Amino acid sequence: MSETVSSFNQAGSVGAAPTAGAMEQAQSVSTEIRRPGLVTFAAIMMFVNGGFSLVWAIQEISSASWIRANLDGFGYANLSSYLWAWGILDLVLAGIAIYAGIDILRGRAFGLIVGLVIAGVSATRWFFYLPAASWTAVVIIAVDVLVIYGLVSGAEYFERMKLHGGS
Prior knowledge:
mainly alpha
């Protein structure tokens, strides 16, 4: 009985030698590169950022009256006539943010660079809206800061993926 228990091996069978397939599987698992949790979080936040930008773009293109009233009340009267242009900019930012999120999940360095640039541009852009839409701007700037933190903290993951042919 004790011989049977002690002969239980890595292949998962009693008394049998490890098969070539089991050894190959063990080697492939050991070389697999795991994506850090903060990188996954940054990718998901890029999707959220893209969603926020998409919703905001729809409101700007439709010239929502509350945006116009808030912009006019805080001295941005000349900007309220160009809401459609801001809407197009936000549509472009939303598309790029969603693409960057997909690329980040794939572990590509291009996603890292584009994600950092989009998060920085988005945070800077939302500083203009702080007087008019305070809570929205603060939430989106916070999301952008979290994206930047997640991507910068996981930069070595993208380097390892590049070295292993992931980019």
